[in-house]
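To: structure subgroup
Subject: Chain for Friday's discussion

All,

I'm putting the inputs and outputs inline so they're searchable in the archive.
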Amino acid sequence: MTARVARAIAEYTAHGWPAQPRPWGVALQALRFDVLEIASPIGAIIHHRLLTRVPTATVRPPWWSMLLGPGDRMRWMFLFAPGFLDPDQVARDGGRLHRGPDAWVPAPPGHAPDGLTVGWVVPPAQARWRPYEPDGVFDSLGWLLRSRVRP
């Protein structure tokens, strides 16, 4: 384990986010929050709507490989309050929901198990170490995605 990974794990756990080292980097346990993992085009819409209100990471190939072709392997990860997301809605929109004590997701610094780089777009400190919580009756994944153009 590198010093950078050890520092990150210490910071995550100091804020109540269970973390542990993995061969590929850091893993966060999706116990105190649900993690929505979704493809890049949809993730960009969600990020635009939420901006700095939710800790947000991307899982992406190196920048230079994205210059050579489409970034279709890139995905976004958003941390939401537990129970906020409907798993069926997430699946219909092509996403993956990580939830519960057996769910571990890659976190910066490091890589995902598939070798892609993980980086914060909105670091947890910027979102005050809190997952996104609904703040209105229309606040739902459907609301976040309603402007998406369907094929």
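Points worth raising on Friday:
Confidence is low (pLDDT under 50) at residues 147-151.
The two ends are 45 Å apart (CA to CA).

D.
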